């Protein structure tokens, strides 16, 4: 591993690719950010349910702006996780769906989402306990 956290190769064809998300310049870090960011994870989770058009996806991911959803979809498409299918109709119809890689990544996210939702009662108790303890310190 070199001083930048890479394999010491320049990433040219034929070189052995070594990815380490903890290395500052590793491209896997950017993909992880796209996947685990608020809008990326919600977009992938929504598309796990099936193909959606832009406005249907925007309604499903409640609270995302048109601009943020567009940026998120572009990043996920660039990373090979989302496929954009434009139909030559009037008006144009654009559908978004997960690629096989995107489906695998989203499947892992769905497990995490379900775990968080299933354990939210514990999280709420922990938050109350934390808030009470910190309120007492500030008094």
From TrEMBL:
Coiled-coil stretches: none
Recorded superkingdom: Bacteria
GO MF, any single term: DNA binding
Keyword line: DNA-binding, Transcription, Transcription regulation
Pfam families linked to this entry: HxlR
PROSITE patterns: HTH_HXLR (PS51118)
Protein name, entry field: Helix-turn-helix transcriptional regulator
Lineage: Bacteria, Bacillati, Actinomycetota, Actinomycetes, Kitasatosporales
């Amino acid at each position: 591993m070199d001083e930048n956290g890479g394999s010491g190769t320049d990433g040219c064809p034929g070189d052995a690719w070594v990815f380490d998300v903890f290395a500052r310049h590793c491209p896997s870090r950017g993909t992880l950010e796209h996947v685990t960011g608020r809008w990326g994870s919600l977009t992938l989770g929504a598309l796990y349910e099936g193909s959606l058009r832009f406005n249907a996806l925007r309604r499903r991911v409640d609270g995302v702006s048109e601009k943020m959803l567009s940026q998120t979809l572009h990043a996920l498409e660039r990373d090979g996780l989302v496929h954009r299918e434009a139909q030559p109709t009037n008006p144009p119809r654009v559908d978004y769906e997960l690629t096989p890689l995107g489906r695998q990544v989203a499947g892992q996210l769905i497990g995490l989402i379900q775990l968080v939702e299933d354990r939210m009662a514990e999280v709420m108790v922990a938050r109350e306990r934390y808030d009470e303890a910190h309120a007492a310190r500030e008094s």
